[in-house]
Amino acid sequence: MVTRSRKSKISSSIDSKNSGAARSWFLWVAPFFLPAFFYLSTLFAFISPIAFFIVTLKNRTWVSLLALFTNAAIIFAVDRDLESLSIAIWFWFSVGITFPLFIRKLKKVPVAFFLSFSLALLLLFAGVAIVAHGQGLGVTDYLRAQLTFEIDHLLAIPEHPFQKWVEENGKSSLIHNLMTELPSGLMIALIICYWFNLLLAFRTLPGFLSRAFWGSYRNPEWLVWPTLLSAGLYAFTEHAPYYIGMNGLKVLLMFYGFQGLSIVTFFLNRRQIFGFFRALIYGFLIFLASPFTFALGFFDLWFDFRRKFGQS
What we know:
Blueprint: H1 2-28, H2 34-41, H3 50-57, H4 61-79, H5 82-106, H6 109-134, H7 139-155, H8 161-169, H9 171-204, H10 224-236, H11 239-270, H12 275-288, H13 290-303, H14 305-310
């Protein structure tokens, strides 16, 4: 019995040392190459800030900033594209550094997201405005020129499937649609990146957030008024107000979608449903029943589903 207990103590100490060494390796080595590797892979670019995120949460912001320059050097050495490099730095700084930094300082994830997201949009607009001004163009004209260049590049590829789609819809119509939906598309993509990295940090860092956090998210009540205003502009106006309402409504519905998922998470936690069936339910709500998810989050403002049905 004594021998067996000693062995168990030795094995547990070895395991703790190995886990500590693994965490130390990740905190001090991985951030200096992992973000660039993920970003260049394209498929995993949206989670490339996760190493910065974890290191910044661990109160090592200076390591994150140093690693940011190292990864930027890797990107530039491989790609030699200043535009791609600028996007990578902006993305990593916003999602991987400012977001966890605000979380650590404020202890409130929604407030930290709002500040980091607003700063990210401000930096992006300022960067695009500076580049456009350097070329003697306005922001809108610069973006239209960039879209036209990218479309022409795809059309130059022999037998590319994109060619047939452009021939059916028209190049000018395609550019117009992309320009009108670009703001909401960009913001929605950025919001999803914030959400994925926060979720991955929750899964990676023990003690960071709780399972109850994901089932308690609720939008502020005042958010319903810009949502209704955007819906009104989208439904009853034309030209510029119509496009403003359309983009605003798409972005705001994303937050109600998160609230709808939070309600479902609350009930799944109460029913102790995890693993495959939980993932199956999430997949169904996100990909096949997204209107129901949006409506569930929106009407929760009046019905408070968690309080009414959670007591039964």
